[in-house]
Specification:
Elements lengths: L1 E6 L2 E3 L5 E9 L6 E7 L6 E7 L4 E3 L9 E4 L4 E6 L8 E8 L4 E3 L3 E5 L2
Parallel strand pairs: 2-11
Antiparallel strand pairs: 1-3, 3-8, 4-5, 4-9, 5-6, 7-8, 9-10, 9-11
Length: 115
Amino acid sequence: QVQLVESGGGLVQPGGSLRLSCAASGSLFNIYAMGWYRQAPGNLRELVATISSGGNTHYVDSVKGRFPISRDNAKNTVYLQMNSVQAEATAVYYCHAAAARRSYWGQGTPVTVSS
């Protein structure tokens, strides 16, 4: 089993920055990628960014260059640095871990972009 705990969400002004963290624990040896998804009200959950165990990253076009994803292997933690946020970034952000036979989700952390 893998447990994912997100933190760092909250209220941020347009143009501001926020850093989300996802701490992973449990049986991590089968995890080959981690990432962030988001779900805005009335929308489907969508991919934001992923990072593989080898450090390869992938981003949805709308966040490229603004939301870098990174990981600290010593802390088993993945980060999403959100820069120059706009109103469309308002959503619940979920951490995801992909293993060989299943995937895992965190409980989500809400991000609200508003002045």
